[in-house]
Amino acid sequence: MGIAIIMLIGGVAALALTSLAVALYKKFKLKVPPQEKKNIHRWEVPGATIPPAPVEKLDDKKETGQRRPEERDNESPNVNNQTVLERIEEVKTSEEEAGTSKESKGDPTLQDRSNQSGQLKRREPGKKGGRPRGTTYKDSNTPRQPYTLRPEIVCWKRGRQWAMAAEIPDELLQKTGLTVLQSGAELIQEESEESLWPLTQVSGQVTVRWNEGEVFQEVKVELGHNDFLLFKLCGRNLNQGRLVKSISSGAYLVIAPEDWRRDEMQAGVAPIAPEPVSLHGYAAHFFDLEEGNSRKIGFRLPDGKSVCIEKKGRLFELVGDRIDDATEEKGPLFCGGAPRIVASDRQLWKDVKTIVIGQEGGGRGKWRLPFKPNSKTTEQQLPSEVAERKGGWYFLRFYNDGDELMESMDFRFLRGLKQVRIQHYTCFPAAKGHQPVIVEFHYDPDCTVRQISNAKAFRIQNQKDKTIVTIPSDPTWDRSIWLVSQNDGPEVEVTIIVKRIWWALGLENTAPSSWQDRSVTLSREEFRATSTKALWLRLPKRSWVDKLLVGFELSRARPYPVRAKDTTVAIPLREFSDAKEVVDDRDEHFFKIWVERKGLREEAVVAILSASRSSEPEGLRSLNLDIVSASQLATMLSSLRREAAGPLRLLIKEVRRKYRREKTASRKDLVEFKVYALCLIAFLKRSSQETATSKFLNAKQALLAARNFPEITKVLQQRFDDIKFGKIV
């Protein structure tokens, strides 16, 4: 009986609570809370009211493509799991906040979100582009522009394939009802990165839709109908990029049909072979366009037609106190303050509606700021907020009246950095090999410099206003990265490259693990047609050399192509098996390389092909100074001096002065002169004076002298280097 009474009382209480809930429901007119509206992707007519939250389960079809399965599995199972009273309390609070906001008549943001016609409102530039952006800083005298929420089309290396996607700004990711479509078909969000929606084709229109209060908004990006996409590559490994409409200089990636062939007449040889793409039937082609050359991007189509993308000069340039560092993928580095912007034509500023400057790099919530240029001035100063940040890595994007991207660029600056000074050196080693190089960082007293990988490999001297770094003669540290900061401000990356050439003897298909800067001794066996030996060269950086020649004489040297992406080159020795120097085993010969870059040519002896001692006449196996006339040597040097020029002429003159007439000179003086003269003849034989020295009757004695007195040869080489680079004593 007692149990029945308790059950009756419970039923009455439940009925009362239900009646109360219904009354409260009607009073507050329950709507879908923001966290639930986020998952309802229905395209509503602007201005329409949102119906009460459905109690039935959401339609699976409306969820498809909007959220990843794992996200739906991890969220709340159903809206019914929340009590009615909790939902009413949330909605009450939400409506009170919304009412307060709507009463704020002076809020321009609210006024921008809708208009009386109910049509979608077009957004301004400022929130464009895929990288996350943050809030702006305090106002200044520079005119400001409102933001535009707009996606950016990007590419990136995903495993072994290239993928393309629409990258959505961080602000849009927080919007309810977010949907991304391409040509009307809904795109699926990338699992590894929530801001990316991979594309399903290379043409058409990308549309992003979201709910702004009770008004739905959308932005569109036209991909065109050219059946290819053009990306400007960036990053240290050039493994990412963004869509551009034109080319200037730098590394580019073109996603084109796989049956398109590179037009090498216009574009040159490909730096690397085409790579696979996530879209079936397409391939990724690489182009490396250097400043000042006439290369283009060109393809040959199966029907015989051609596609060509011409270079365009930069519309805008950055000017300021620039430091020539080697961090190519992050734009130029400026010291003493932020750079200024100069247009190639002053009239261009009339076409620029908005410039957006923002902080580059990974992560979310990055600072950015839009501003309007002054069309009456030639140069544009960056907003004062940039200087207040002391330094960092930033992007600049220029938009026209149609909110279209005109151009973009990166740059770095550090206000407290004054200069980076690198001691003079040569790319080829001197007689004693490569020497350590001194690098000096000059800065304000509140700056610091640190090495990010292995500071113990360097000798670092920190002083009040500069840091002196000694870079060792080791190819491992020819490239080093340093971080410079000012008074706890952002750290700016500075890359130092010591442009030195190294070489090594190894197998043709296996790059060596160690390098050297002294001449390698080679045998004729290594030049046989069946040999697998190769001389490897290590260059300072990609695209550093314009032309590479290898051989025993310049007139018969072989050119070797260097791919833009490579820093090492293998020279198979078997390709010189028919050279006369290899066939003639009676003499010692010098294997050389010639490097041409920016109109200058330099050469070095990288290997010595030794003579076969068994084939030498008995009289030439050892040096005999008695058969060499000092006066004949002096006459020979005088003749060579008249034919020589520059540093060689001065070096010959200095050795010639050592000659003393045989009647007055001591035997010691004569022997010293003969040794120096013979070693000089051998040294000249390795240079451009080879034809003249071949007339010398005792040329073989000169080679023997160089072999027996290597220290004299090194002295002559060092003296030649000193004269060449102005160290004349």
Structural account:
- With about 725 residues, this protein is an alpha+beta fold.
- β37 (about 545-550) and β38 form a beta hairpin.
- The longest helix has 27 residues, at about 1-30.
- The chain is elongated, with a radius of gyration of 37 Å.
- About 30% of the residues are buried.
Task: Briefly say what this structure is.
With 729 residues, the chain is an alpha+beta fold.
Q: State the shape.
A: elongated
Distance between the termini: 122 Å
Mean pLDDT: 77
Spans of at least 5 consecutive residues with low confidence: 27-124, 126-147, 614-621, 689-693
Report on the biggest sheet.
Answer: 8 strands, antiparallel
Which percent range describes the beta-strand content? 25-35%
Task: Please specify the SSE layout and strand pairing.
Elements: H1 2-28, H2 34-37, H3 60-63, H4 69-74, H5 84-102, H6 108-112, E1 127-128, E2 149-150, E3 152-158, E4 161-167, H7 170-173, E5 176-182, E6 185-186, E7 196-198, E8 204-212, E9 215-224, E10 229-234, E11 240-243, E12 250-257, E13 261-262, H8 264-267, E14 275-276, E15 282-289, E16 297-300, E17 306-309, E18 316-319, E19 322-323, E20 333-335, E21 340-343, E22 352-359, E23 368-371, E24 379-380, H9 384-388, E25 391-400, E26 405-414, E27 417-422, E28 437-443, E29 447-451, E30 459-462, E31 466-471, E32 479-486, E33 492-497, E34 502-507, E35 520-522, E36 533-538, E37 547-551, E38 558-559, E39 568-572, H10 580-583, E40 589-597, E41 600-609, H11 630-643, H12 646-656, H13 667-685, H14 690-693, H15 699-708, H16 710-724
Parallel strand pairs: 1-2, 20-26, 35-41
Antiparallel strand pairs: 3-4, 3-11, 4-7, 5-6, 5-8, 8-9, 10-11, 10-12, 12-15, 13-16, 14-15, 16-17, 18-21, 19-20, 21-24, 22-23, 22-25, 25-26, 27-28, 28-31, 29-32, 30-31, 32-33, 34-36, 36-39, 37-38, 37-40, 40-41
